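User: ok so my PI wants both of these folded by tonight, can you help

Assistant: No problem, let's get them done. Here's the first:
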Amino acid sequence: MFQYATEIDQIFQTWDSPSSPGCALGIVRHDELVYARGYGMANLELGVPIAPDSAFYLASVSKQFTAMAIALLVEAQQLKLTDHVRQYVPAAPDFGTPVTIAHMIRHTSGLRDYLDLGFMAGKRMEDVWTEADFLAQVGRQKALNFAPGAQYVYSNTGYVLLSLIVKRVTGMSLGAFAQERIFAPLGMTQTVFKEHHQQIIPNRVSGYSSAADGNGFVNEYHNLQVVGDGGLYSTVEDLARWDANFYVNRLGQGSPALIEMMYSTAPLIDGTPQTYAFGLGHGTYRGLPIIAHGGGLNGARTQMIRFPTQHCTIICLSNLSSFDPEAMIKRVADLILAEHLADAVDAPPPAAAATPPAVEMDAAALAAYTGEFYSPELEVIYKLAVTDGQLTLSFGGQEPISLRPIAADHCQADHFQDEGERKLAFTRGENGAVAGFTLSTGRAWGVQFERASRNI
């Protein structure tokens, strides 16, 4: 019996129930899975409990596998990190400045996030998102968030493009390539990229979120058919095998240089150092260096944290959208690595994001912003209207969204399709009338809208 089993089970006791979703936990020490257990249910309808061989949707934890596929091709001299995306995916726009494979791997490409763009256009997670949809959407973009290499902003778009580069170079889908070159060599028999929304995944865990009224749970799912940014299903057992390869590499040419590449970072253009490597982030926890990545999407919350100096990795995979796997892993680390950890320092609570105060505008001022506006980058029409003295935005038959004026010609939607805030910056023509606006999210900036003509 694992030394800390009783204490660990107490940490997860809230989810150790036949009426709740939960998680699978794996603890790897010196390449051995020393503790693996499921808490809660993989499927509430069928009464299937979570187990170490339960296959969870990994969400963005998938990115390190996409990055490894690219690293293997670099090692084999089939591509270079300095290659431009348009060499392999000519449907990607020419922004007048090269976006390289290295930029996309390390999230410094400036590419707008395709998920944010999709939500802006009214797409829902239950809609099918195909590769053709993705390429059409990316191909319509007229600008980047910033010059490649100038900033770090997480972008799922880059990782989907990386999956397409693997396909163009090898003639194999990312899933097929990963199966042949990564999963099979490492004995990861329960790991697969889901490349079609109707694909069967053995031992697949269902995703859940808490019901709006707080009474029970509701199903969560998505129909993404693009991969690279996500798409991978795996188990704590298989991820332990993956983790072992970071100490003694058995992939590609079997060289330690492959792992060094996976851990490599690069500074921004101005020399600012970065911590994001190949689908992996460098950091520290209580004085110990860590290598980590998390993921979250529609009922999936996942995290792997490696403590390389202690040859220890903790894996936590959950099927509940409110679950915090990073916090739970750190509680486990506090227990099993206590003698190696520096004293915990109570960090100040994170400062709440400053909410710009609303600016009072009279009816005439608000009316200047009303009308229909079209975005050729999204192929969608937004309608702005004044309802009960409030500026609102609506599109695609959805309920109107309240807009809050925060400055002259600037408005903010605080809850836009439950995806966080959106900011509108209006533009005016030579006559002073509102001619359009740009719409920005955290990962997609400056999407253009123009006042719609009647023939659209």
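One down. Here's the second:
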Amino acid sequence: MQIWEIIRVALQSIRANTLRSLLTALGIIIGVGAVITMVALGTGAQRAVEQQIASLGANVLTVYPGQSFARGVASNNRVSLTVDDAEALERDGQLIQAVVPEIQNSAQVKYLNLNINTTVVGASPNWAVVKNYQLQHGKFFTAGDDAGRERYAVLGSEVPNMLGANPAGLLHQTLQLRGLTFEVIGIMAPKGSGGGSWQNPDEQIVIPLQTARYRVFGTDRLRSISVQIRDSVPLEQGMVDIERVMRREHKIRPGQDNDFQIRNAQEFLATQAAATQIFTTLLASIAAVSLVVGGIGIMNIMLVSVTERTREIGVRKALGATRINILYQFLVEALVLCLAGGVTGIVLGVWATRVLARANGWNALVSSESVAVAFGVSAAIGLVFGIWPARSAAGLDPIEALRYE
């Protein structure tokens, strides 16, 4: 028998039992679809974490207020960070490249007849550079603007939408912030939430630090101090340098606990990325079990088919079909079932990924590699689980097969 004749006979056999063939391939369809969906959602989540890590800026550590301790016991009073702490870090830090103090609070913002409540950040002019923000329109305020306590505002990318205005059209317009008039001089590019923070940085408004300190909030207490460590300096050494300056500034004696916290958001997100990868692998492995179950189902049905078609096999052998012809016929049937199930599963997996991602707002990424692997695995299952039934059919004695009832 020619190879095309073998394929034609195999396809005729599958068409003769369409419903049974569909049910046989169902395990492969579900398995391939589940694997693609799990891998796509996991890869999308991991890619989102990697983008967050990249958006944090290079070698940036953040200092937060902590608690005061008395004889090793934490008190209820939180120790404040002040502008003096930031100036000390900038002045005395040996491994520090830049320091960005931040005063942050929520405030009522009015534009025309609209009012919103959002986060207002008072920061130094190098805030955007250190924190890796990009400007979409306009410019950022300068050191002269900060020293002059100018009432300039740079808006996050979502603020114009919250105010119902065109981002480019808001440039050089005025808005009211706690009753004070501010001129909009810049609009930032979208950043996206990151660093494990519940706040959306695209919804904040940035103003000069001295303006926030003296005109808006009336305090020098900082929410945090972002510290950029010099290039090629390990972050661990940078932490030690920050700790040295802060302990001296807060007059903490040797042996006493710190009343401040130093956090590395990149380290947190890297751990999160590793955990996401582990869960993705675990879920994909669980989904892959259904592929094995589907392969066993195909082998079972093919063995039943061999039993049902024993007399047909005897007739074919009597007419000159060789063992290899019969072997190829049943292998092709198993392979076609698995490949058809694999293609259907790929379509189902891509569709399910898009539906879940859109319904829940998840990040998802269907890669060509995962599709190729799923297709290859389905073909391999057809070959592996079709060998036994095919060998059983090929090994039948033609005389005994013709006598089979």
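The longest strand covers residues 96-111. The mean pLDDT is 80. Good luck tonight!
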